[in-house]
Amino acid sequence: MTRTVNPWSVARALLLWVAALTVTLPLLWVALASVKSPAQLNDPGLVLFVPNLDNWARVFEAGILEAAGRSAMVAAVTVAISVVAGSMGAYAISAYKAGGAATRFGILAAQVLPPAVLVFPFLTMAYALRLDSTYIPVIFAHLSFVLPVITWFLIGFFDAVPRSLEEQARVDGFSRFAAFRLVVLPQVLPGIGAAAIFGFTLSWNDMFYGLILAPTQETILPVAIAAFNTFRGVELGAMSAAIIIAVVPVVIASFFIQRRLVQGISGGAVKF
Amino acid sequence: MAEVRFNKVRKEYGSTVIVDDVDIVFPDGSLTVLVGPSGCGKSTSLRMLAGLEEISGGEILIDGRVVNGLEPKDRDVAMVFQNYALYPHLSVLENIAFPLRATKSRRADALRRAQEVADSLGLGALTSRKPKDLSGGQQQRVAIGRAIIRQPAVFLFDEPLSNLDAKLRVETRFELMQIQRRLGITAVYVTHDQEEAMTMSDRMVVMREGRVAQTGRPDEIYARPNSVFVATFVGSPKMNIVRGAISDGAFISPTGSRLAVAQAPARDAVVLGVRPDDLLLTANSGGTARVALIELLGPRAIVHLDAGEDRLTSVVEADRLSELTVGTSVDLAVRPGALHLFDPQTEHRLPEV
C-alpha cells in the first residue's frame, strides 16, 4: 500500500517551517549571545560553550529594569486612555455610523504619516508647554497611533452586538451612556482585553518617539537598548540581554491574545 | 395604567414617509394589536412610542402627557423585542431584576422581587442560568418577566412570538393575554400575523403603507372589513375577491365566475368578496365551477375551485367530500347575509344593502 503525498501540503509545511525559523533563529541567536563573553561573540556559530551572566549583570546595572518600568508606565497610560476613548469611538462608529462610512477606515489614515512628520510639532509643543522633562509628550505621540488602531480594532467587536441590547436597556430605564456601560461594553470585554494588549505592544515597541520626546537621562526601554551602541562600539552581549527583556513580554502577550487578534483584525476589515 | 394616544403622528426618513399622520387611541388597560404587512409602519409606530425613534410630526401622549421629547427611560414603558434582547452577561435573575437597577430599589429587594416574578412564570429553577443556556420559550419568559417587574404604564411588544415554533407560539399567546389581563396594563402589540392579532386583541388596528386602514374589535373587522385590503388581509384562508357585475340575483365576472347572490341588487361594476366559509357548493353536473384541489384539515377541508379563470376557495365539512372530488362540477352560492361588496374604483366597502 502506498501513501499518496499531496505536494501542496508538503509545500505548505515547508513554507511554515521557513517562516518559523526566520522568526525564531534570530531570537535564539540573541538569547545565546546574551550569555557569551566578548571573545565568544566573535564566533556567531558557536553553540556549545560555558554560559556566563556578565552581560545580564551589566544591563541590570545600567538600569534596564527601570527603563522597562518607564516603558510599561508610558504604555499603560497610553492604553488606558486609548481603551476608554477608543471603545466609545468604536461604538459610535459601529452603531451610529458616526462620521459616515469614511470613518471606519479613515480612522487609520494617520498611520500613513511617517512619524518624522509628527515628531517635531510634538517636540515644539512639549517645550512650549514645559513638558519636555516628562513622559506626557511620548504618551501623546503614542496615542496618535495606538488610539486609532484600538478604535478600528474594536469596531468589528461592537458590530457583533445587537442594537436591541442598547435599546432594551434604554427602555428598561437607563440613559444612553448607562446602557453602553452596563450592557454593551460587557459584551466586548474579550475584544477590549485583546485591543489593550495589542496597543500596549505597539507603544512598548516604539523607539522613534521615545528617542526624541522622552527625557534623555531617564529614557524608555527601546532607547535604553540602543544606548548599548556606544562610541566604543556595540556592546553586543549586553544589548542581546536587553533585547530579550524587551521581547519576552511581547511574545507572552501575543500568545494569549492571538485568537482575538485575528478576530479583531479580520472583523474590522471584512465588515462594511 | 394609562391611555395612549397618537395625534397625527408622522415619521419621515428624508422624503420617504413611513408613518403618515396616524391617529390611534389605545384605551386604558386594553390590549391593542397593530397588524399589517411588512413596511406598513407598525414597528416604527411602536418604536416612536417607546422613544427609540424620533417623531417627525404630531404628538404621542401617555396618560395625558406629551412624551415626544422624552427619553425612553422617562416614559415608563416596558418592551419585549422580537429577539428578546436578553443581556447575555447576566443570569436569568439579574436580567429580570435589571430594570429595578435604574430605580432606587435596594439590590436585595430587587433580587427578591425578581425571584417572585421568575416563580410566577415557571422560571424559578432556572434563575442562575445564563440566557444562552435557555430554550427559546424560556428566553421569551425571561423577557416577559423583565417587562412586568417594574409595573410600567404601558407594555410594548414587537413581534414577541415570531421566533417561537408554532405550538409554543399558541401557548405563549394565551399566557401573555392572561398576564396582561391580570395586571390590567395597557399593551400595544405589533405583529404581521393576522391570526395572532385576531385571537389576542381587544382592539385591532390594521395598518397599510403608513396609514390606519381600519380600527375596531377583531370580530367587527372580520365581519365588516372596510376595504378590499383589510378583507383579504384578515381571515384565513383569504377572502375570495372577484370583479364583475350583478344582475337577476347572480354575480357574473368576465373571467367566468358565476355565483348565486339572491339578496343583492343589480350593479354594473362591483368587487365581490366572499369568505371561503361562506361560499356554498352544490354538486351539479352542469355547474360553472370545477373542483381543482382539496386540502384536508381534519374535520374540514379547503376546496380550491376553478371558475373560468378565477381561482376561488371554499371551506366545507369533511363529510361532504364523498360528493365532492377533484373534477366535480359545482354551482356556487353565497351564504345569505355574508356578501361583501366593494367599490371597483376606491376598493372601499359599499354601503349595506
* Fraction of residues in H or I helices of chain A: over 70%
User: pLDDT below 50 for ≥5 consecutive residues: which ranges of chain B?
Assistant: none
H/E topology pattern of chain B: EEEHEEEHHHEHEHEEHHEEEEEEEEEE
For the record, give the distance between the C-alpha atoms at the N and C termini of chain A, rounded to a whole number: 51 Å
Query: How many strands, what sense, and barrel or not for the largest sheet of chain B?
Result: 10 strands, mixed
Strand content of chain B: 25-35%
Instruction: Please report which band the strand proportion of chain A falls in: under 5%, 5-15%, 15-25%, 25-35%, 35-45% or over 45%.
Output: under 5%
Which fold name is given in CATH as the topology of chain A? MetI-like fold
H and E string of chain A:
HHHHHHHHHHHHEEH
Low-confidence stretches of chain A: 268-272
Domain ABC transmembrane type-1 (chain A): 68-257
Keywords (chain A): Cell membrane, Membrane, Transmembrane, Transmembrane helix, Transport
Transmembrane segments (chain A): 72-93, 105-129, 135-158, 179-202, 236-257
InterPro entries (chain A): BP-dep_ABC_trans_perm, MetI-like, MetI-like_sf
Question: What does this molecule look like?
Answer:
- The complex is a heterodimer of chains A (272) and B (353).
- By secondary structure, chain A is mainly alpha-helical.
- Helices cover 74% and strands 1% of the residues of chain A.
- Chain A has helices at 7-33, 38-41, 54-61, 64-96, 101-106, 115-128, 136-159, 163-171, 176-187, 189-205, 208-213, 221-226, 236-270, and strands at residues 229-230, 233-234.
- A two-stranded antiparallel sheet of chain A has the order 1-2.
- The longest helix of chain A is centred in the last third of the chain and has 35 residues, at 236-270.
- The termini of chain A are far apart.
- Chain B is of the alpha+beta class and 353 residues long.
- Chain B has helices at 42-50, 92-101, 107-120, 136-148, 166-183, 194-200, 218-223, 228-233, and strands at residues 4-13, 16-26, 31-35, 57-62, 65-66, 77-80, 154-158, 186-191, 203-208, 211-216, 240-247, 250-252, 258-260, 267-274, 279-283, 289-296, 300-307, 310-317, 329-334, 340-342.
- In chain B, strands 11, 12, 13, 14, 15, 16, 17, 18, 19 and 20 form a 10-stranded mixed β-sheet that branches. Chain B has a 6-stranded mixed β-sheet with strand order 6-7-8-3-9-10, with helices on both faces. In chain B, strands 2-1-4-5 form a 4-stranded antiparallel β-sheet, with helices on one face.
- In chain B, strand 4 and strand 5 form a beta hairpin.
- Classes of the chains: A mainly alpha (272), B alpha+beta (353).
- Chain A: Belongs to the binding-protein-dependent transport system permease family.
- Chain A: Residues 68-257 form the ABC transmembrane type-1 domain.
